[in-house]
Amino acid sequence: KNVDESFRITNQLDPERYEVWYVSYYADPKPWYRCDKVMKKVPYQEMPHIYRQCDILIKSSILESFSYPPLEMMATGGYAVVAPNGGNVEYLKDGENCLLYEPGNVEQAVHLIETIVQDPDLRERLYQGGIQTANMRDWETIRLQILKLYGETEEDFA
Fold it and tell me: What is the model's pTM?
């Protein structure tokens, strides 16, 4: 999950300007993690509420089959700063629906976060692109594509 990298990033941010939340199912924050709020074992149905309370998600995972958090953040109107990996490059478009940073490049990620905060045009573009991406990934849309892929129709299941 590469969580340490996320905290190497957030630890560089001004604590007077940025509140940092840590959500993890099992793990406790390490002593050097600067986090203002820690949430553990959050039920899935409560995650949208958490995302809506946040502005920027940092996703530093370097190996995932499919990365839901950036998509979930977009669906709630937030912004994602993400290290690209095999599980997210399919739907993440740098500068359109998220900002991508080179894994390990903490300074670049910090700069991208600051850029989101300072640039209202960028925020609007990322917001619109994120909402559009999330809507395209809505289960109802994907379900019909999957049925078509397998040569099925909705009537086959009625």
Answer: 0.88
Measured CA to CA, the distance from residue 5 to residue 113 in angstroms comes to 14
Q: What single string gives the DSSP state of each residue in 103-119?
A: TT-HHHHHHHHHHHHH-
Cβ 79 vs Cβ 98: under 8 Å: yes
CB 40 within 8 A of CB 26: yes
Q: Give the model confidence (pLDDT) of 60-115 as tens digits.
A: 998 887 888 999 999 999 999 999 998 889 899 999 999 999 999 999 999 999 99
Q: Where are the alpha helices (DSSP H) in the chain?
A: 3-10, 47-53, 68-75, 106-118, 120-136, 139-149
- Asked if residues 98 and 130 have their Cβ atoms less than 8 Å apart, the reply is yes
Distance CA 85, CA 90 (A): 9
Report how far residue 109's alpha carbon sits from residue 53's, in angstroms, rounded to the nearest whole number: 21
Sign for the CA dihedral angle at 123, 7, 100, 88 comes to: negative
Name residue 99's beta-bridge partners.
Answer: 81
Half-sphere exposure of 61 toward its Cβ, with a 13 Å CA cutoff? 17
Residue 81 CB coordination number (10 Å): 26
| Tokens at 66, concatenated | 């499919």
